[in-house]
Automatic annotation (TrEMBL):
Name of the featured protein: Phospholipid/cholesterol/gamma-HCH transport system ATP-binding protein
UniProt keyword annotation of DNA-binding present: no
TM spans (from-to): none
SUPFAM superfamilies found in the cross-reference section: P-loop containing nucleoside triphosphate hydrolases
Source species: Epilithonimonas hungarica
Domain (ABC transporter): residue spans on this chain: 21-258
Domain of life: Bacteria
């Protein structure tokens, strides 16, 4: 896969088509450890929201609450017009079916080939697909990440960047409305990270996804964000476009940009 130039539009207007996700006064503690302390933010349909925050700021717990893997102590999380904190497991599953997740580790099944990894995901989401339909979905997903030639390889035969792209293909194969990226460029060399950054931008355009991107990578944040929120101690410390965050005069916020 050839390295492409990163899309340079860093001052685009956020897509405003209505709020798709909203956190309202969400609290979550683990014993005496208060992780989320009344967090409030929303994401518009078609928007890429980057979440920045240092370790322990509540980034991962926020995402776990969003997909119902962690129950909140109080507050509301509205997704597709439903408060998921009040849904039963069947209701949560219907929401999860519309969400793709790129894990930091790619989380591929080592005993399965690339094709089998993708087919397994398809079968879990839609048991009515024929073998021909599944093969078509698999081929398209792999073409979209530039790894069709790896279809019969096992994860052990892939580089870290290739695994990340296969993980992305697996997330996209269900044609999600929401994408969650957990440290999408983490552990990658500079060139491969640039490829992933490009892919995220292309995916937004092609699939019209609404995305949450958790990252420490300021390059990823700069080129993939419509808007950024910065978490501190379980609340939103500040939010805005990349240039707003970069020019923030608060000493703690400035620390993200210090080498």
């Amino acid at each position: 896969m050839q390295t492409r130039e990163i899309i340079q539009d860093t001052h685009r207007e956020p897509a405003v088509e209505g709020v798709l996700i909203e956190f309202k006064d969400v609290y979550k503690s683990y014993g005496d450890n208060k992780v989320l302390n009344g967090i409030n933010f929303s994401i518009n349909k078609g928007e890429n929201l980057v979440i920045l925050g240092k370790s322990g700021s509540g980034k991962s717990v926020t995402v776990k609450c969003l997909v119902g893997l962690t129950k909140v102590d109080s507050g509301e999380i509205i997704v597709f017009g439903k408060d998921i904190t009040k849904l039963n497991e069947d209701g949560l599953n219907s929401v999860r079916m519309k969400i793709g997740f790129l894990f930091q580790s790619a989380a591929l099944y080592d005993s399965m080939t690339v094709r089998q990894n993708l087919v397994f995901t398809l079968q879990h989401h839609n048991k009515k697909l024929t073998e021909a339909q599944m093969e078509s979905y698999v081929m398209d997903a792999l073409k979209n990440v530039g790894l069709l030639e790896s279809i019969d390889k096992f994860p052990a035969e892939l580089s870290g960047g290739m695994k990340k792209r296969i993980g992305l293909a697996r997330a996209l194969i269900i044609q999600p409305e929401i994408m969650i990226y957990d440290e999408p460029t983490g552990g990658l060399d500079t060139i491969t990270a640039r490829e992933i950054i490009d892919l995220i931008s292309e995916i937004k355009i092609k699939y019209k996804t609404t995305s949450i991107i958790i990252t420490h990578d300021l390059t990823c944040a700069k080129y993939n964000s419509d808007r950024i929120i910065v978490l501190k101690d379980g609340v939103v410390k500040t939010e805005g476009r990349f240039r707003d965050i970069e020019n923030n005069t608060d000493e703690w916020v400035r620390s993200f940009f210090e080498k």
